[in-house]
Predict the 3D structure of the following.
Amino acid sequence: MLAPIPASLAAGLAAPFEAVVSTASDMDGAGRFGEAWVGADRERVVALHGARPALDLPLSTITEVRIDELFGASRLVAVCGGAEHVLATYSRNLVAEFALLARALDDLREGRDVQLPEVIERSVCASCGAPLPERGATCPRCLSRGSVVRRILGLLRPYRRRTVLLMLFAGAGVVASMIPPLTYKMIADRVLEGGRHEELLLWVTLMLAAFLLGSTFQLLTNWSNAWLGARVVADMRAQLHARAQRLKLDYHSRHESGELIGRVMNDAGELQHFLIDGMPYFLVNLLSFVSIAAILLSLSWRLALLVFLPVPILVLGGSGFWRLLRPMFHKHGNRIGRLHTLLGESIRGVRAVKSLVQEKRRDTDFDRANEQLFDVHVRLERTFHGFFGTMSVMMALGTVLVWYAGGGAIIEGTTGIGLGTLLAFVGYMALFYGPLQWFSAVLNWATNALTAAERIFAVIDQPEEGASFGPTHSVAKVRGAIRFERVRFSYERGKEVIRGIDLEVAPGQMIGLVGKSGAGKSTIINLIARFHDPDSGAVVVDGVDLREVDLASWRRQVGMVLQSPFLFNASILENIRYGAPDAPFERVVAAARAARAHDFISSKEDGYDTSVGDGGSSLSGGEAQRVAIARAILNDPPVLILDEATSAVDSETEKQIQEAIANLVKGRTTIAIAHRLATLRNADRLIVIDDGKIVEQGTHEELLAIEDGVFANLVKLQTDINRLRAEQTVWQE
Amino acid sequence: MAGIDEAFQGRLGGVSRKDGRLFLRRPDQPGEEEPVAVTVRYLRPLTARTELVFLDDKQREVVTVTGLDALQGEERALVEEALGERYLMAAIQRVRRIDVQFGTRYWQVETDRGPRWFALREPGKNAAWLNDTHLVLRDTAGNRYEIPDLDALDAPSRRRVRRSL
């Protein structure tokens, strides 16, 4: 049950209704924000907007349940033959819930049990109702800051000794900084007024010692803190990287790579900045703030109260100021970003700008963004200086008051305030006011750092892949019999890409997957490599459900050669043996030779030591392909996944790649996404996939013989394109 | 292929609605006398809702027209109804409050479709000014909201928007 239908509404239905599954929408039938419900039992589906049922349909009449993406919303539609009934219109907040409902309706229609996942990635906080910053995120408004702080402190546990040391240094530093104003008092009271001139040197020495000690302890505090802060963040970053490598691929397909890189670098950096600069500042100043207040009160509570007078103004002014400044900072950042984009476009797109003769327009656009940045910059700076100006006036006011009242008290000589006390006050006041104006800034900073930490923990807390199904066991060497049993799969809830596939591959057999792009071929190989688990059904290898097999031991049995192979920024040699770093060089060469790569590698200036560049950028497409094939051959996997490149290469390279592939597939269970005629012909069986289902299977010849068959049509299209290409090539020559 | 100047010369006629679906018949096209099930879309849903395209079940163009002047009465109402069902972007009429928390801006607004509370992040990406006063927002869940004319809002709402973006 995603959200139960209120009993009062269900009571209004014509026949008794006990919902098996139901959910609430956030829009009514007319597209206004409001409430509506959709629910189903084993017989019928009902939609309720308000008291009267809007729809009450027998499940048996429904031929399809469909989700329509509208502009700014979506809707769930029940198709009954030619007629369509809108079950609910809902905002994007509820796409996950309604996708599950759509699946559940399908299950009910086909007489299956409804299975709902335990965790639904909602976009609205379940406890406070606030919109979430990201689907499935923890609600920052409900987040207990205490628990995040405790976790950060938990990271300090291995460095307990250093942490204690840091605290001691900070405390000692504060104590040392409290001493000099007291020496002012002693010098004034005892030496200047009391006439004990011989004590001057004593007090001055003490003052000097206090200054020196204060600075030393501050230095030690900062040093140990620099180490601790950087240590904690480095640990966090390592945890984050390790986790990112082991996250389920679902996570990676849901999040852009830049986002994760941002977490590892920016969020960790933000936290480090705060831990190293903000935290000690805050601690030390809080400590000295309290001690100074205590000392002042003990010296003279009357004068102390005068000193405290501007404090509320400083604190309130400070927080008000940051509230004013924060949107300005955001604006400033956004406008700098905008200017960056424009500048980048103007420079990278200089050819396009020139050829379309739009230099003037680019100038205008840039000038406008530039002026906007100028405006906000000026306002930001002025606000900043205005604030500090006001604050120093406030502080000066405190000083003036203290001199006036203190001076008066000395003249009257009644309250026991002497020159020494007054001097000590003035000395403490500078220490006291200074940090106040920054407190709210640091608090603000802490908030951002806590959010960064929370975002990092959110990734660290993601489940690891392959950990969801109970006990697993390793497989040493599989025979390679692969079976799909009624497999269904969707990347995004509601958009099923594999819709019930049954498939049997015998050990050593070669299967060619054929179909339009988006038909589901890549998803099938992803399921075999277990980058994803099926939503229902199972992928079975040698009679064992893949989910019961230890993931790493299975992946070692599967070789993959993908369309655009990923090469690491290292030498060709290291790339070929990336999966088996201990392989002797002789075997690497043998693999390269079988992959028809030995010749081109040998002819390079640096031979096998040639660096392939970032992402393999210094190799040609055909070369990178063959390096990837050599990598797969070296590992000698019993199961091979092959996603043929579609890009055209010259005929010589094509021939070599064909030979390399022929060597590669020998004696292995091979699942190939096939584009090349040679591969199609060599396959033992071709499987034609359309819209997530198997529509035809058989040998190349068998499929060609099908009148108006999907495969026959694809081949015809392909032949036409090839003829065009051939003609073009002739023309070019 | 139609010439560049004739992109919107398609003729409309024979609109009907049956079983929740919109049908279009094009008597002027030989071989297309039978009504086909269509969906209707704006070509420029954000900047100018003037041109319309009718797509068939396979998302192929049936006809593209400028406005609905060719249609009257019942037929026109049917197309407008279908457009109303598809284009559900809420127009913000009043901004009650925008607060920033943890880098996310929370907007509390009144729209033509009722009150709404949504979260906005990365305004550089998710807040687009189509001109000086026309603003389109995309919230963290992917919903869209627009302020067709910022100057038409009350002063506090304007101030909140200008300060936040």
Q: What stands out?
A: Chain B is about 15% helix and 40% strand. Chain B touches chain A at residues 18-21, 45, 84-90, 100-104, 106, 111, 113-119, 121, 123-124, 139-144, 163-165 (CB under 8 Å). The two ends of chain B are 44 Å apart (CA to CA). The helical segments of chain B are 73-86, 123-126, 155-164.
